[in-house]
Structure formats: C-alpha cells, structure tokens
Design brief:
7 strands
Length: 222
C-alpha cells in the first residue's frame, strides 16, 4: 500500500487501507460477541471534509468507529504510538497524524496538516477530552480542542460511544456486552463568529449534545 502511494495511487491506497481496517474491525466485533447498536448514521456526510467529535472511553472506540462510520477518517495520536511496530504503520495508512504536545511548533504543524486534509475533503476525528475516560463519564473538554474543525470551517458531527470500556479495559480481559455508537446531526462551523468560538459557546453546545446522547443511551436521561 505504501508502494501504491509512492506510485501515485494514493486514493487506491487509502481505500484499500480503510477497507482492510473496516473488515478487521468487524472481525474483532464478531470475536468479542458484542451487540452493537448504531443510530444516526445518516448524519455522516458522504462527501466533503468534516470532523467527528466524540467521547473517548477506551482503545476499543477506534474499532467501533472503523466498523460504523462508513468512510475513511484520520485521527491525531500521541507521538509515543509512533514507535510501536505495525500500529504506527496502520495509523499512518489510515490517515492518522502524530502530535508532540510538548513541542508547540511541531504540535501546530500537526494541527495545520489536519486542517489541510479536511479542506481537501477528508474526515478527521477529535476526542476533545484529551484522554480516555475509562468509565469516569464525559470529562471536561480541553481548551481549543475544536480548533481542527473551526479553523477548517468544516461541519462537526457529535458522536457518543457507550459500553466500550467494559469490553476490555475495565478488567483487561475480553467481555461481550452491549455497545452503541450514536451520531448527531452536523453542526456547521463556517459561519460561527470568532467571538462564539473563543467564548466557549460552541464547546458548550457540543459537550451538551454528546452528554445528552450518552445519558439517553445509558437510560439516565430525565
């Protein structure tokens, strides 16, 4: 696949990489025996650039997203994953980027590359909590965590994942059980004022949507 990219067949490479990863995700889901529920898949744009914005409870979240989104997407991973054999290659093949949060200049360069890819029609996922929740509920969003979408002027699709922490990370043994992925309608960012972006109203709006979907899926909504 890297060779195809070098020869000018990047679109073919991207498609093959995604279809292989998607197939792998379905195999993993079948192996775990998890019962998957998906709602709102019609809210995912079929073309043009956009951002998925969701909660992040577990490493199993990526498996669920590969199985449900229906089109290739990239994500920003911490630089430490770049040294893990095979995983680092798959992250690159799927359009992922590695970020060095301790180096501001390099971090900005990574964000700008993500923005460029979105403007070129790609999809990226944002986990605005900045770390895995590991069963602690929806954590506060990091300051500036939505910049990837707002600077690209791309629509954001909020999503909520439930049950993923219980599958593996809770006990570090595989468990079957109910898991769900819920997608909300897109939120346009192109016409949002700079004041609203900086003031936090957009962040509060996205947080509220995801929190509401989580409570509904978990049966705790009022």
């Amino acid at each position: 696949m890297f060779l195809l990219g070098r020869l000018g067949f990047k679109q073919t490479m991207d498609y093959l990489a995604y279809k292989m990863a998607q197939g792998w995700a379905h195999v993993i889901l079948a192996f775990t025996g998890c019962k998957l529920t998906v709602t709102g898949r019609e809210n995912i744009p079929r073309k043009d650039g956009f951002c998925l914005v969701g909660n992040h409870n577990s490493i199993f979240d990526i498996v669920l997203l590969l199985a449900t989104v229906g089109r290739p997407f990239g994500f920003i991973a911490k630089k430490e994953l770049a040294v893990i054999p095979l995983l680092n290659l798959w992250i690159l093949l799927l359009g992922g980027l590695f970020i060095d949060r301790k180096n501001i200049r390099k971090a900005i360069g990574t964000i700008n590359e993500g923005i460029r890819r979105i403007k070129a029609g790609g999809a990226m996922i944002i986990f605005p909590e900045g770390t895995r929740g590991k069963g602690r509920g929806l954590l506060p969003f990091k300051s500036g965590s939505l910049k990837l979408a707002t600077k690209a002027g791309a629509p954001m699709v909020p999503l909520a994942i439930t049950g993923s922490y219980d599958v593996f990370e809770k006990t570090y043994r595989l468990h079957s059980g109910p898991v769900s992925v819920n997608f909300a309608p897109p939120i346009a960012t192109a016409d949002i004022s700079t004041e609203d972006k900086r003031g936090g109203s957009l962040t509060d709006q996205v947080y509220g949507i995801i929190d509401g979907m989580l409570k509904k899926a978990e049966g705790t909504a009022p």
